[in-house]
Design goal:
Blueprint (H helix, E strand, L loop, with lengths): L1 E5 L2 H10 L3 E4 L12 H10 L4 E5 L10 H17 L3 E4 L10 H10 L4 E4 L9 H8 L7 E4 L10 H10 L3 E4 L8 H8 L4 E3 L4 E2 L2 E2 L1 H12 L1
Parallel strand pairs: 1-2, 1-8, 2-3, 3-4, 4-5, 5-6, 6-7
Antiparallel strand pairs: 9-10
């Protein structure tokens, strides 16, 4: 299965048509993603039939959030719940490079029945396996989106394998995944779900041929 990053209603419709199984809806792709607008969330949820998971990230400065940031992101969680999003994608860290368990707990209280993916904030922690152990104490976390702490999932494959063996939730490999490396990652990590962004794009636009090539490699 393929989760695809999209930023607009047009891209969401294209990704569904090209064969995406799930969408990660974000704003500001170059920065790694921030929370999309109310209108974008509403329109995408209303116009596609596959699950939509919405990025909850009030800014791209860091993954350390102030009280004001927390107020904003919790309001956005509630908005996603009201608009019918299938899930949210969120992560927060403390200033010393650990997972922010308190804010994560607040997000869990506000998310209702939505799925929860802890995103690539985990790739910036001091000890990534210790962070996975912490997340194991939060059964409400369904997925961890990660490159294993490396620039790409391929470079972080050994760390991803260790995370896969430690985690009680699903490890969702992401970053730099394309048709050239997806098969190796799936076989090594024993996963059937991957997260792709640039790997299905050409010059920034979604590319149906790259979707097809990725799918063909995954089916082999």
């Amino acid at each position: 299965m393929i989760e695809v990053i999209v930023t607009t209603l047009e891209e969401a419709k294209q990704a569904e048509r090209f064969g995406a199984d799930r969408l990660e809806l974000i704003a500001d792709f170059p920065s790694g993603g921030t929370t999309p607008s109310f209108g974008t969330i509403r329109n995408v949820v209303e116009h596609v039939s596959i699950p939509v998971h919405v990025m909850i990230r009030p800014h791209a400065n860091s993954f350390v959030y102030s009280e004001d940031d927390e107020e904003t992101l919790l309001a956005d969680v509630g908005l996603c719940r009201e608009l019918g999003a299938a899930g949210i994608v969120f992560g927060a860290l403390t200033a010393d490079g650990s997972l922010d368990e308190r804010i994560l707990g607040e997000v869990i209280k506000h998310k209702g029945d939505m799925a929860l993916t802890f995103h690539r904030a985990i790739d910036e922690v001091r000890d990534i396996l210790a962070a996975v152990e912490v997340l194991n104490d939060f059964p409400e976390v369904d997925h961890v989106l990660t490159s294993g702490g490396a620039a790409t999932a391929r470079e972080g494959i050994d760390s991803l394998k260790a995370m896969r063996e430690t985690a009680e939730m699903n490890i969702l490999p992401g970053a730099g995944i394309d048709a050239n490396n997806v098969r190796e990652l799936m076989e090594t990590l024993d996963v059937s779900f991957v997260h792709v962004g640039s790997g299905v794009r050409t010059d920034g636009a979604l590319d149906e041929s790259k979707f097809r090539q990725l799918r063909e490699q995954m089916r082999q």
